[in-house]
């Protein structure tokens, strides 16, 4: 029973330690994403707005985008306590799905795409919920390039176009979870909200109704991205294995002394009392073996004393069995007139040497 309890405690300790392990050391990660780019509100900036006002063309509009795709790669470092820092590169691509505004309603003709790419420095914290599910939260900041590629649109009032790139500060918020596959590999799934702050792109705006006018200048837009990223992570550094629980200290051996009359192997009342105490002690502590060692004094021959010591040991062993101790736990031996408790010359009657030692181990 004691061994079962110790084994159970050890397993619980190891399981708890495993669930508490975090990413430690260098790691790399990457994945593919779906990207929803919110409709961009476009405002005609310097060089465009003035011309638009004089010709009756509206100064603002909206560009809508299809669901797009992208990817990200990252290299980072785990501090072993749930905190991770990483440098990430990402790319997002969305095609134009529609245009409206600028005083003429929806654009019947449109095309083009927006590409967004750059680098982010992220700081994340991963929660040790279980060995198989590790949610995390994070935030990042960096620099992103917004590229409008061959964006064109025409409605009843205006024709606009842009083919330019601008770089701006950006930030993102991250929420996701990892599913560890083993001590190095993990699957990841997260949601990311990323905003590029106020990109401005060179372009042109032309009024197609009379009187016609063409102007060049800046489009001021916004860029709000909602991304779902499915990826993998590989950790180069593995947390050191948890130290095993300390082994239980073995119980100290306990000894009971049973004394005999000269040349006798029968038990008196005091002897039976001591044997009873030994049997009771066995039930209150973890005992794997009981040694019953018989001895004599130096009176008599060595051969005779050897047999007498064995008879004394067997008498004590029999009493232990009578009190409920299994016989297979008892090792009964006789040692004759050796191992004297009190040193005496030969042929000496010494009461303390006429004994049986009961040793609980």
TrEMBL record:
Gene3D superfamilies: 2.40.160.20, OmpA-like domain. Residues 247-361 form the OmpA-like domain. Residues 1-20 form the signal peptide. Its main location: membrane. GO terms for molecular function: porin activity. One of its GO terms (cellular component) is cell outer membrane. It is found in: Cell outer membrane. Transmembrane segments: none annotated. It is a multi-pass membrane protein. GO terms for biological process: monoatomic ion transport. This is Membrane protein. It comes from Neoroseomonas lacus.
């Amino acid at each position: 029973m004691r061994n079962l309890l110790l084994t159970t405690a050890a397993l619980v300790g190891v399981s708890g330690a495993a669930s508490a392990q975090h990413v430690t050391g260098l790691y790399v990660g990457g994945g593919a994403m779906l990207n929803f780019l919110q409709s961009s509100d476009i405002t005609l900036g310097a060089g465009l707005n003035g011309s638009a006002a004089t010709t009756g063309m509206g100064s603002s509009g909206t560009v809508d985008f299809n669901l797009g795709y992208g990817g990200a790669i990252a290299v980072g470092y785990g501090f072993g306590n749930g905190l991770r820092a990483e440098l990430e590169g990402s790319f997002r691509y969305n095609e134009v799905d529609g245009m409206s505004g600028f005083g003429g309603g929806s654009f019947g003709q449109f095309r083009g795409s927006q590409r967004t790419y750059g680098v982010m420095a992220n700081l994340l914290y991963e929660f040790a919920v279980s060995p198989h599910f590790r949610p995390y939260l994070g935030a990042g900041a960096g620099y992103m390039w917004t590229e409008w590629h061959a964006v064109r649109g025409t409605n009843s009032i205006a024709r606009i176009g842009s083919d330019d790139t601008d770089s701006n500060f950006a930030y993102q918020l991250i929420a996701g979870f990892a599913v560890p596959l083993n001590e190095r590999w993990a699957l990841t799934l997260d949601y990311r909200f990323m905003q590029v702050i106020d990109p401005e792109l060179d372009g042109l705006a032309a009024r197609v109704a009379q009187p016609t006018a063409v102007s060049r200048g800046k489009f001021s837009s916004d860029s709000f991205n909602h991304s779902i990223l499915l990826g993998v992570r590989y950790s180069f550094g593995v947390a050191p294995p948890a130290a095993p629980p300390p082994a239980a200290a073995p119980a100290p051996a306990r000894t009971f002394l049973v004394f005999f009359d000269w040349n006798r192997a029968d038990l008196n009342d005091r002897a039976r009392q001591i044997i009873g105490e030994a049997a009771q002690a066995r039930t209150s502590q973890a005992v794997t073996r009981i040694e019953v060692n018989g001895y004599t004094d130096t009176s008599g021959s060595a051969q005779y004393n050897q047999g007498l010591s064995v008879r004394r040991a067997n008498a004590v062993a029999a009493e232990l069995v009578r009190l409920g101790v299994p016989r297979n736990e008892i090792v009964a031996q006789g040692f004759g007139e050796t191992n004297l408790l009190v040193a005496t010359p030969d042929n000496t009657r010494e009461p303390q040497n006429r004994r049986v030692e009961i040793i609980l181990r």
